[in-house]
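new request in #modeling-help
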Amino acid sequence: MIRGRVVGRYWATKKIEHIPSGAFLEVESHGGGRMIAFDVLGCGEGEDVLIVTGSTAASWLGGGKIPIDALIIGSLDETTKSKSK
Amino acid sequence: MIRGRVVGRYWATKKIEHIPSGAFLEVESHGGGRMIAFDVLGCGEGEDVLIVTGSTAASWLGGGKIPIDALIIGSLDETTKSKSK
Amino acid sequence: MIRGRVVGRYWATKKIEHIPSGAFLEVESHGGGRMIAFDVLGCGEGEDVLIVTGSTAASWLGGGKIPIDALIIGSLDETTKSKSK
Amino acid sequence: MIRGRVVGRYWATKKIEHIPSGAFLEVESHGGGRMIAFDVLGCGEGEDVLIVTGSTAASWLGGGKIPIDALIIGSLDETTKSKSK
Amino acid sequence: MIRGRVVGRYWATKKIEHIPSGAFLEVESHGGGRMIAFDVLGCGEGEDVLIVTGSTAASWLGGGKIPIDALIIGSLDETTKSKSK
């Protein structure tokens, strides 16, 4: 999984079918890169989250034709301790 | 998902079977890299899009033998706000 | 598989469903990057581990809706020899 | 998909089972990296090709035990136009 | 597929279930990075190999709960010719 911080949100009126209810959040990963992750937990800017990528994201959302490859699976507790860089 | 901007289009007369109807668009990602994504929405150059990659792209297109691993799932609204770099 | 060393642990009280029992460990890979891997072996900080990523991780855990894409599959023996950089 | 140019070919007499008929071509991607892609179209050195990666490549070839994760799906037309870097 | 050279071997006494018979070999890829690939061909140090990654590796080994995401599919012939960097 990737650890990152929510930094923005995107909207797409022109889109393909089978996108479930939720938000497209932009997340900056620990390493500095940015990606768009799908969120069903109601996360907000500044929140530290865990993201799962690949077909696993679509499977959790129901699989089949769901076109999502990055999903926020949790929000990190503030009490989390780690020898972070 | 990857956020990027459409910068070109490719054609392939010599190709394998089971490629669906659509366009091969070149997209420059936010991070600077380039990839070829399949488009069924009719996106054009300069448009900001969201791309899903991996087997999820083929699944949305019908799965099975469809040889596509990158699909444009939406075009970003101009009103989208984000603390972009 | 990726070889890495456990450097921390994360907790997520706010999370989606279908996350199995286990720990979210932060691992620093041989190349220097960091990722979060799911652990069911009870690994601790400083331990050198092997990590499998992608849908293979979810499949081992039972597949279906399990939202995990990185799993520690083993802890490297201290007697392991390699021409490491 | 990845866009690249064929730069070489490899043979493997010692190999596992279930590798289909075709060639292992070395391709230099637009970004400069190199990979080995499986080819069933008879592409040659200097040809610009599109490559699909991951389980999608194996699925097109028949799925199951086929151990191929990169497949050339087409050869780019010379008339292709793009704002290439 | 990735082309690389075998540079070491790892053992893991403490491991999860469903790991098949074979060896965990460390491989240095053409680009310089290192990864651990599963080997059933009996490859040794210094051998140039082709590696398939992702769920395709597990599928060849039988699929289901097999937690392997990188598999050596062949050893490159010495007579192989390529415009290598």
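bot summary: Chain A touches chain D at residues 55 (CB under 8 Å).
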